[in-house]
Write a structure and sequence with these properties.
- A hairpin with a 4-residue loop joins strand 19 and strand 20 (302-309).
- The chain contains 3 helices and 29 strands.
- 44% of the residues are buried.
- The protein has a 5-stranded mixed sheet, with no helix packed on it. The protein has a 4-stranded antiparallel sheet with strand order 2-29-28-27, with no helix packed on it. It has a 4-stranded antiparallel sheet with strand order 3-4-5-6, with no helix packed on it.
- It has 428 residues and is mainly beta.
- The chain has helices spanning 151-157, 197-202, 422-425, and strands spanning 6-8, 13-15, 22-24, 39-45, 58-64, 70-77, 89-90, 98-104, 117-123, 128-132, 138-139, 145-148, 180-185, 191-196, 213-221, 228-235, 245-251, 259-263, 293-297, 302-309, 312-319, 325-328, 340-341, 347-351, 360-367, 373-380, 396-397, 403-408, 415-420.
Length: 428
């Protein structure tokens, strides 16, 4: 399965923790390690796989990598999914060790736009917790504010990353003026809508938007906490991901200075009445030539993303202020993956979706300076897991880019693994 332009390089790997419980972190765009590299965030669940109903409980906690990988539970939540978990993440801008994760609230007592869900902030040092009124998607590096979206909307448009409602799923308008992207203050919990779905539909509107349901996803904040990016998606057929249409945007923290970086509106033969969604493969969506996915900031002004630009789909690096676009790894980075840059910007970390024959996923490092790709691991995944319950590698860097953490099921258990990549990434 290795690309002809890649070098296989075996790196030491070890599973974190022991026992029969299953552990995972979630998405690729957050760091499970604390600033010292000692504590590793994770969710612990009793099952390998399940179709989630919103009642399944996940323990929230951390591994102590300096004390036999002991797992310490600090709370629990029913607001989680297999892909993103509960959006567990550190608050690096706060004193000591503080973290945040999504949780569930009694809808009858809630006074917020999304009455089923909220966020919990936990102070590692004082062992105290407090609630914030909205569930978070991503927190600024300054830890002063977060961007928040509706996980019930995901449950309709992209259930792989949604949370099931406590009782009945809410009725959703296609592009309402009271839903979209909220900005929430981490200290006070004050929140306001900074971009509505109605605003996005009206911004350079397209005919394909008229009857479609709209949502936003893949929100990311730059290191300086001065800009954020997101993907605006819309579709008339939510059950078929190959019918999703995409626009990549950036904006100021208050939603102003909206910049459209890419749009992949295109004809959709799948909308014909005689089209059979059953012919769509599990990962056909991720391999679409129109897909925009997994954007991440390289620095305060550059964005890496898998997507099309000028009739070619590649890893593209956008200069956000100017709109200039550069292809990264044209000959060897030829598949969609979950990518992030090392701290020094010298390495791009990514993975692949399962090979259709071998069901193996590759863990990839790409050297920006010389254009060399290294395949540092190959991991089997059970094809029977399906789409919502699958386990992508979702590779994440440690603080000094010497290790990578992945989620994997190659040992027939859902666990977290540490891959030592220091032989490659350590400066000469």
């Amino acid at each position: 399965m290795s690309d002809s332009h890649s070098i296989s390089h075996n790196c030491p790997i070890r599973r974190v923790g022991t026992g029969s419980a299953h552990h995972f972190f979630g998405y690729y765009n957050k760091h499970p390690w604390d600033h010292s590299g000692r504590y590793l965030l994770a969710q612990q669940v009793p099952m390998f796989s399940a179709d989630l109903t919103g009642k399944e409980c996940a323990a929230v906690g951390y591994f102590d990598l300096h004390d036999r990988d002991e797992f310490h539970i600090i709370g629990e939540t029913t607001a989680w999914n297999w892909q993103m978990g509960c959006q567990l993440q550190w608050l690096p801008g706060k004193s000591g060790h503080q973290l945040i994760y999504n949780s569930r609230i009694d809808a009858a007592n809630a006074n917020n736009p999304y009455p089923d869900f909220c966020a919990t902030v936990y102070d590692f040092d004082t062992q105290t917790a407090r609630q914030l009124p909205l569930p978070v998607y991503v927190v600024a590096a300054s830890s002063e504010w977060a961007l928040c979206v509706d996980y019930s909307r995901f449950q309709v448009t992209h259930p792989t990353i949604g949370y099931a409602a406590s009782l009945a799923e809410p009725e959703l308008a296609n592009a309402p003026e009271d839903d979209g992207i909220y900005r929430m203050d981490i200290d006070s919990g004050e929140a306001r809508l900074i971009l509505s779905l109605r605003d996005l539909k009206k911004y350079r509107p397209l005919k394909s938007m008229d009857r479609a349901i709209h949502w936003v996803t893949h929100l990311e904040i730059n290191p300086a906490s001065s800009r954020f990016l997101f993907i605006h998606r819309w579709t008339e057929r939510v059950e078929d991901e190959t019918c999703f249409l995409h626009r990549l945007f950036s904006a100021n923290p208050d939603g102003s200075d909206l910049r459209l970086l890419e749009c992949t509106d295109h004809p959709l033969p799948q909308l014909r009445d005689d089209f059979d969604p059953a012919v769509v493969g599990t990962f056909d969506y991720e391999k679409s030539e129109y897909q925009i996915s997994h954007p991440a900031w390289k620095n305060d002004r550059q964005i890496i993303v898998w997507g099309p630009h000028q009739d070619g789909i590649h890893y593209h690096l956008y200069d956000e202020p100017s709109g200039e676009v550069e292809i990264i790894g044209a000959d060897c980075l030829t598949e969609n993956g979950h990518m992030t840059y090392s701290v020094d910007g010298r390495w791009l970390l990514s993975d692949t979706y399962p090979d259709s024959t071998s069901n193996e996923r590759l863990l990839i490092l790409y050297n920006i300076e010389n254009g060399q790709r290294y395949d540092v691991g190959s991991f089997y995944t059970d094809p029977n897991l399906g789409k919502p319950n699958r386990c992508d590698l979702h590779p994440r860097w440690n603080p000094d880019s010497s290790q990578v953490c992945i989620d994997s099921v190659h040992e027939h258990s859902r666990q977290m693994y540490l891959v030592d990549v220091s032989a490659l990434t350590s400066p000469l």
